[in-house]
Specification:
- It is a single chain.
- The chain is an alpha+beta fold and 633 residues long.
- 47% of the residues lie in helices and 23% in strands.
- The protein has a 7-stranded antiparallel beta sheet. Strands 9-8-13-12-11-10 form a 6-stranded antiparallel beta sheet. The chain has a 5-stranded mixed beta sheet with strand order 15-17-18-20-19.
- Helix 1 packs parallel to helix 8 and helix 16 packs across helix 17.
- It is elongated and about 140 Å long.
């Protein structure tokens, strides 16, 4: 009793069997819905399919038939969790092995109503409308027949919203639909499995093709020796391979001891100009590489909503200022996978020793979505290969720059020596002229000796610079910084017997080792000599200090060496020039023009940084402090 007729069963089995040959899930569901309406009196229906969204199992509408376009548009936006489905079944009437009937009268017990209920026209008034007859269909009735996997898990359902005959479906119809749903479940599970296998295959092929393209692009990149062109090319390739509308690169500047925006793509000229003027302290970058945001090797993702106030000032921005960024941060994310305007996806560039060179920030994905784990991993491979190309280019440019500087120094040295020889010759000619008195002759000969000393000093300094610039870091050995300093102090002071020099220093740490070479004495000599020679005061005062420093950003230890004096100081417009060889070339004839350039060259050879400041902040006339930061060995 209540069992479907043989004719109905034959039609159900034939129709369901045909579904097994449809591999595409969307085509399968379309055919399934069409068949149901042909066999059974169904006017409107929804076919739901279960999907995993993170830890949640979500039921979403895939086929919606018998509704207006406006109603269909609303229904396509709703979904239900597995817990909500289980709760609804507790109130429903189970009318078959896989079927539940939810009569309109039950809605008064299920309230309160939410926005999803309104999409079905369910509210307190409609739910209280009486049924016309016991076997008649109420507008708020619905029957739900589940699709179940071979493992017994819920994978979807057929939901009858309105029968075409206006009556509650008979048990015969319900059982027939259940048989159809059971057979259809096999077809759905098979189609989903085929789709997953195809997706995995396509993803593997796509990943393989992408890696092949990455390697091809990086091979081309290795041949690029111009840093600016290479940086722009890195971002262009990133956009082409992974679909980002914008991106930026920041690199660590050893001279300024901070990070700077080097290349930007996809931003307005105003944003580019403002960004390139920013200086990002190393301390501020620690937030970017917090373990809390690690998503892959050397890759971090920081949701825009979590950016702290102090970090917003380092974001790419317009002249509107930080207020615009505050408003952007409050902007809600469209959905969990949507890209937020302030999201930060970060990739580290490292050298061969694991030290951070800089970072790459892909931005504004073309599809508007947070990249998938597979894409994040692929970008990581690209960033690792780019790191190698960047380091090679950096080494090449340093070698080329050293070669060009040496050639320029030697060429200008020849010109300068030739000019000074001409001056000496003129002094000598005047000293032996007829009728010259002894005082004038002595003056001319003294001028000649001074010129000779200038030439000897200049040749020695240029030779030192050429020697430094031609060396590489492979020649460095473990050296005690304090021993080197103590050995050099008396040697340097002894060359100024007419000067009264007072040396002071605080407590010195033990085992103060760095990587250096035999020229480290020259570094201290030039620092001490500059403090003595250019100090017009009766008593020259020099203060030394050496302090340890741990850089949490790179997790490295350093020594900070400082030398202060009570001289007349250095104006601000001269501070940077004194550390730059090319800026000093115009002053080759000056007796000490290259002293600090030699110090700067040695510091950078040793992997450190150097800066010049006023001993008394804001008043350069009260003396100078030179600070050198060197990596601990």
């Amino acid at each position: 009793m209540g069992f479907p007729t043989k004719e109905v069963l034959d039609r159900v089995i034939d129709a369901a069997s045909n579904l097994l040959f449809i591999e595409n899930i969307d085509d399968l569901l379309d055919e399934l819905a069409k068949t149901l309406r042909e066999i059974f009196p169904i006017k409107s229906m929804i076919i739901w399919i279960s999907e995993n969204d993170g830890d949640l199992n979500i039921r979403k509408p895939k086929i919606i038939l018998g509704f207006t376009d406006e109603e269909k548009s609303k229904l396509q936006t709703i979904s239900y969790t597995g817990m909500e489905i289980d709760r609804a079944r507790e109130f429903a009437n189970k009318i078959g092995r896989l079927s539940y009937f939810v009569p309109a009268e039950l809605y008064t017990r299920l309230g309160p109503y939410d926005e999803r209920d309104l999409c079905f026209g369910i509210d307190e008034k409609s739910a209280s409308t009486p049924r016309k007859a016991p076997d008649m269909w109420h507008p708020l009735d619905h029957v739900n027949i589940s699709f179940v996997s071979q493992g017994g898990e819920y994978i979807g359902s057929i939901e009858i919203e309105e029968p075409s005959d206006g009556k509650i479906p008979s048990l015969e119809s319900i059982k027939a639909i259940e048989i159809f749903a059971s057979l259809a479940s096999v077809a759905i599970e098979q189609a989903e499995l085929n789709e997953k296998e195809q997706a995995i295959t396509e993803a593997a092929e796509k990943r393989s093709a992408r890696i092949s393209r990455i390697l091809s692009f990086v091979r081309e990149m290795l041949a690029i020796k111009n840093p600016e062109r290479m940086m722009n090319n890195i971002l262009t390739i990133l956009s082409d391979l992974f679909g980002f509308k914008a991106a930026s690169i920041i690199l660590f500047d050893e001279r300024e001891n901070c990070f700077k925006y080097i290349a930007l793509m996809g931003y307005s000229q105003e944003e580019v100009n403002i960004s390139k003027s920013l200086r990002l302290p190393k301390d501020s970058m620690r937030f970017d590489i917090s373990p809390d945001y690690l998503v892959a090797h050397d890759a971090y993702f920081i949701p825009g909503e979590k950016l702290p106030d102090e970090w917003l000032r380092y974001e790419i921005q317009t002249s509107d200022g930080i207020d615009r960024l505050y408003k952007l941060r409050e902007q809600p994310r469209a959905h969990p996978r949507a890209w937020h305007p302030l999201d930060n996806l970060i990739y580290l560039f490292r050298d061969r020793k694991g030290r951070i060179l800089g970072m790459m920030y892909p931005d504004n994905p073309s599809d508007g979505l947070i990249p998938s784990p597979e894409t994040i991993e692929s970008i990581g491979i690209y960033a690792s290969l780019v790191s190698i190309a960047m380091e090679n280019t950096k080494n090449y440019m340093e070698t080329l720059g050293a070669k060009e500087e040496i050639e320029l120094l030697n060429r200008l040295l020849f010109i300068d020596v030739r000019n000074q020889n001409a001056i000496m010759r003129r002094y000598l000619e005047m000293s032996i002229a007829e009728g010259i008195d002894k005082d004038r002759q002595k003056k001319y000969l003294k001028n000649t000796l001074n010129q000779m000393e200038n030439i000897v000093d200049l040749i020695q300094k240029v030779r030192r610079l050429s020697s430094i610039r031609s060396r590489d870091k492979s020649s460095l050995l473990r050296v005690d910084l304090i021993n080197s300093l103590n050995n050099q102090i008396p040697i340097s002071i002894s060359r100024y017997p007419k000067k009264k020099v007072k040396i002071e220093h605080g407590a010195m740490p033990d085992n103060c080792y760095i990587f250096a070479n035999d020229l480290i004495g020259d570094m201290f000599d030039h620092l001490i000599s500059n403090s003595i020679e250019h100090n017009p005061r009766e008593e020259v005062e020099i203060w030394f200090s050496i302090e340890p420093m741990h850089d949490e950003f790179t997790n490295r230890d350093f020594w900070i060496f400082s030398i202060k004096d009570n001289g007349t100081g250095i104006p601000d417009d001269r501070k940077k020039d004194l550390l730059d060889i090319t800026s000093q070339i115009s002053r080759l004839g000056e007796k000490t023009g290259l002293g600090l350039s030699i110090v700067s060259a040695l510091v950078h050879l040793y992997g450190g940084s150097i800066s010049i400041d006023d001993r008394i902040a804001g008043d350069h006339t009260k003396g100078t402090v030179i600070k050198i930061i060197l990596p601990a060995a």
